[in-house]
Write a structure and sequence with these properties.
By secondary structure, this protein is α+β, with helices and mostly antiparallel strands. The strands form three sheets. The protein has a six-stranded mixed beta sheet. A six-stranded mixed beta sheet has the order 5-6-7-8-12-9. It has a two-stranded antiparallel sheet with strand order 10-11. Helix 3 runs parallel beside helix 6, helix 5 runs antiparallel to helix 6 and helix 9 runs antiparallel to helix 10. The longest helix has 38 residues.
Length: 384
């Protein structure tokens, strides 16, 4: 019998052997490939790891560049919103638009940095903090001083404010929230506290149109559209509390919607409606200036609550309302969105406190059917 490894085995089976050009050898294959110019780089021993390293370097450079560009863009966006929001019509559109879209690149950048260049994770993390914090408005509460509640003459108030406008308001749900949280002061906008079930209010509560108070209301004074030139209002209530007279202001300021809606009707050329938005900015700025000037005329404990129709990074807010402590900004956790659309949420309802107050806690209440969420805050008066 012929050998299994010899040419005779092939001949016995009727197959041509290598001498007859039948079996290609490795040397023959390489020679043929070289002759045809088709020898692949990856065919050489050790070429695949080198090509892989080259690919990782290229990918790392792309991820590094993208990470730096993203950081610069989000930092610029933060400055743009703070400096131009509610000053220039285009920045105002961005100010009131959805901001979650600026976090979408993180879905790609984080795993890409982890895979290609892990040391970039710190850079991406800084960008993520800027987006989630200053741009999107995530808040972390600052601990209140330990002596705030123990100071001599200190007293506390729990405030609840809610824009109750809209046909879907569930008065029973709001009444249940009031019963569960037991606020000392309730303020509503676009509605009346008297529209809630009578059982909502314990005996002895004082009811005005837009405010219900556990404590006696000694004086009521209102500024309205005739003063502002817009559609907003601000009402002052002097409350007789155990700690003395407290000046509480319930307000509802002009909405930016009157300036943004014309742009939605001009979908092909929205910039043609820029004059309407610019005029709306002027009305809102004038309104807030008049309202804040009126608040500054009083002395003693001051609280302000209501629908401001602007986020805290609005230039109008910064100019007129930043001297006061924003309860959720100082003692809230999360984004605190109080107004929701189909696309996004935004925090435009606020509780503000003047000098002498310490905010211990602030939170956004559940959906009660209105297009706004209630805002609650626990405040302690610690100094006169």
């Amino acid at each position: 019998m012929e050998s299994r490894n010899g040419d005779g085995g092939a001949a016995a089976l009727g197959c041509p052997g290598p001498a007859e050009g039948g079996w290609p050898t490795r040397s023959n294959q390489d020679a043929r490939s070289l002759a045809e110019g088709k020898l692949l780089v990856l065919g050489r021993p050790g070429a695949a790891p080198e090509e892989h390293r080259r690919w990782r370097r290229r990918a790392g450079m792309i991820v590094s560049g993208a990470s730096w560009v993203y950081l610069v863009v989000v930092l610029g966006l933060w400055v743009f919103l703070t400096m131009a929001g509610d000053r220039w019509w285009l920045a105002t559109v961005v100010l009131f638009g959805p901001r979650w879209i600026y976090a979408v690149p993180l879905v790609v950048l984080i795993p890409a940095a982890w895979s290609c260049r892990p040391r970039l994770l710190g850079l991406v993390l800084i960008a993520a903090i800027v987006v989630v914090g200053p741009v999107m408005g995530f808040r972390v509460p600052w601990p209140a001083p330990a002596e705030a509640s123990a100071a001599a003459g200190a007293f506390s108030l729990r405030v609840l404010t809610c824009n109750t406008g809209g046909k879907s308001l569930r008065a029973g749900a709001l009444a249940e929230l009031i019963a569960a949280t037991r606020p000392d002061l309730v303020a509503v906008q676009e509605g009346s506290v008297r529209s809630l079930p009578a059982t909502t209010w314990p005996d002895g509560w004082q009811l005005q149109t837009t405010v219900a108070s556990r404590y006696p209301i000694r004086k009521v004074e209102k500024l309205g559209p005739n003063t502002f030139g817009g559609y907003g209002f601000i009402t002052r209530f002097d409350l007789e509390t155990p700690g003395g007279l407290v000046h509480f202001f319930n307000l509802h300021l002009e909405t930016v919607r009157h300036g943004l809606e014309p742009m939605l009707f001009h979908k092909r050329r929205p910039w043609t409606a820029a004059p309407e938005l610019t005029a709306n900015l002027a009305v809102r700025a004038r309104e807030s200036a008049a309202a804040s000037a009126w608040v500054r005329q009083v002395s003693g404990p001051v609280l302000i609550a209501g629908d401001f129709n602007m986020p805290t990074d609005s230039a109008i807010y910064q100019q007129c309302w930043s001297p006061y402590t924003n309860a959720f900004s100082s003692a809230g956790l999360g984004f605190g969105y109080t107004k929701f659309t189909r696309w996004h949420g935004i925090r435009i309802d606020h509780v503000l406190a003047g000098p002498g107050w310490r905010c211990r806690r602030a939170w956004v209440g559940p959906d009660v059917g209105s297009d706004h969420r209630p805002v609650l805050a626990d405040l302690t008066w610690v100094s006169y």
